[in-house]
Structure formats: C-alpha cells, structure tokens
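To assess whether ligand presence alters the predicted conformation, the chain was also submitted together with zinc ion. Input:
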Amino acid sequence: MRPRRGRDPRGGRGGRGARGAPGPGGRWAGPWARTLERMRMGRRAQGGLHDARTGRVTGWEARGAEVLATVQGDGPEAFQVRFSLAPLSLAQWDSVIEAVARRPDFTARLLDGVMPYRIEDAFREARAPLFPAGGRDVRASCTCPEGGIGCRHVAALHYVLGDAVEQDPFLLFQLRGRDQEQVAHALRAATAPSAAPAGVAPDADALTADPVTFWKAGPRPNGLRADAAEPAPPGSTLRRLGPPPVGDDAEAVEAVLRRAWATAAAAAARRLRR
Ligand SMILES: [Zn+2]
C-alpha cells in the first residue's frame, strides 16, 4: 500500500481542500464524522473539532491500515495518536468484491479510479462495514493522560481523517485493509470474461431471429441501476482494456470504438445535464 500522509490540516495531501475547514460536512466526511456522535464523546468531540480546525494535528500518516499522528496539546507537549478500524476479513472482502462485481456501474467507476457514490450498498449487501459503525469498530490510543479512544486528540485526528476521506475516499478501503489497486485487481479478476467452452460455436441465429426487436432494450439486467454522474473521460475504459485482439487491424478497430465511445459519452453527458 502506498503511504498517505498529511501535515498541517490547512494544506497538503491529508489537509483541507477548497471546500473549507475540516468538519462534519461532505459526502464521505459526513458519515465519517457521525461515528463520533455514536461514540458519545460529548464535549471532547467539540474540542477535537476545534483542534482539527486550528491545525493542531501537525502530521499524520497512514501506514497500511493504521494511522499514526501527532497532535499538539494545550501546553507545549504534543501527543502521539494511533488509530485504526477493525479490518475486514478475507471472506468479507471477497463478499464485497462479489457484490461490487454484480453492479456493472460500480465496477466501471472503480476501475476508472472513481469511488461510486453509493458504494455502501455493496458493503451493506456483503454485510461488511465501510464507515466505522461506532466505538467498537475503532481502535485508538494516545500518549496523553486520558490515553485513548475518548480523548480530544483522537477526536481531532478523526475530523482530519474525515477531510482526508472526503478528498480521497479510497482511504476508506485502505483503513479496512485493502488499497485502491488491490480492490481494482480483485475486481478485474472477478469480472474477467471466462473463456467460451471449446467446440461451442456462437449462435448466429439468436442475433437475427427477430430483427424488429433486436435494437429494442430488453429486460433490465438484474441489479443494474444507473449511476447519475458524468461519464468517465471518453476512452479511459478502452485504454484500460488495451488494443482489441483482432490481429493487424487492431488500431483501426480501436479508432472506431473510440469514436463510438466519445459519441455515446457526449450523448450521456447531455442527458445528465438536462
Ligand atoms: Zn489524547
């Protein structure tokens, strides 16, 4: 897993984006911050939010699934915080990958490096938590006298990490034990077309049996839902697939596919903007 780090929460990779100070808003930061409410930290959560907003989390780094951070206390002393989530088991990750693989929209987005907006549906289906479910799902320690999960330094780091997952939601996967590339790899393996059984010729008649209905939409594939978001840049999926295996004409075929893809993507984008 590549390490991720942030310095002052007012800048840098783990830091604040253009949207404002670290806080409980946002698609990913919102549910992340609500964990603290479930942990009933009361005033310490407020203190943590204040610390996060005033730059007291002076550095953090995710090493694999564990985050190490330094948080400045009220006095001259700084405290070391360790934070992790309960990792998902191999079986849970397998179930998540299966659930994602059943959703072509999720699969396409993840393989394009975009976190699907409703990815939690797949985790729910797999009965695996993505966001921390509460105190029992979080492991934290701190070198301050309070020493752990209820202290404001852990709360401060929690808010800073909320901002980090807002900027890069794949950090959520990492905290559950797998990074973006590992998930993409598993997904490619789970969705690779299996080889056609030897000796079975494609059924050409099936394509021409009813020319009237051929171009009409059939029943909606099970579980397929449209993700109402801008399509990926034209060609990204084709680039990922590589040249089509059609011999010498691969380039010509790819050019045709690329044009068709761009036309369809532009039409989809127009529809979404309506
Ligand atoms: Zn502490």
